[in-house]
Amino acid sequence: MGPIGMPEMVMIFIVILLLFGAKKLPELARGVGKSMGEFKKAKEEFEHEITRSEAEVRTKEAPGKEPRES
Is the pTM of this model over 0.70? Predict the structure, then answer.
């Protein structure tokens, strides 16, 4: 399967429009936007936790040295 082009995007939009109707599309878009925002927030928190844990491990491996901050 190749990348999705403009004709495929139009077809997907038409199918979604038929399934959900014009009145439900804004609600659906808001829900997708909120979900993506929550996913991004969770990803950033996870990355921060991994970085913090990595710094703790480095500190335990090399006593007396300060962990590097990025």
Answer: no
